[in-house]
Design a protein that fits this description.
The chain is α+β, with helices and mostly antiparallel strands. It is built from 2 helices and 5 strands. Strands 1-3-2 form a 3-stranded mixed β-sheet, with no helix packed on it. A two-stranded antiparallel ribbon has the order 4-5. The longest helix is centred in the first third of the chain and has 9 residues. The radius of gyration is 15 Å and the shape is globular.
Length: 89
């Protein structure tokens, strides 16, 4: 059964699940990765990963990545990292 427009909007923008601090697993998926909720440190709750650590913010944040094989959270560079950096090759 397809999602309604309202259900799609909630999936994209709702922060209620994060606010509940639920450790419950989301059934029938391996992992969900969320942005749109900037945090100082990435967080995992059950199989839900909140990875928006403000990598787009000048000098404050950093990027966070998820290793898809292990589901390990990886702290990346901040917004001032050079695209020509040896780390990016």
């Amino acid at each position: 059964m397809p999602l309604t427009g309202d259900e799609i909007e909630r999936c994209l923008w709702s922060t209620k699940w994060f606010g509940r601090r639920s450790p419950a697993l989301v059934r029938n998926v391996r992992a969900l990765v969320h942005g749109h909720l900037s945090l100082a440190v990435a967080q995992q709750r059950g199989n839900v990963f909140y990875i928006d650590t403000g990598g787009w913010m000048s000098a404050k944040g950093h990027f966070t990545f998820v290793d898809l094989a292990s589901l390990e959270l990886i702290r990346g560079p901040g917004p001032n990292a050079s695209a020509n950096s040896k780390r990016n090759r």
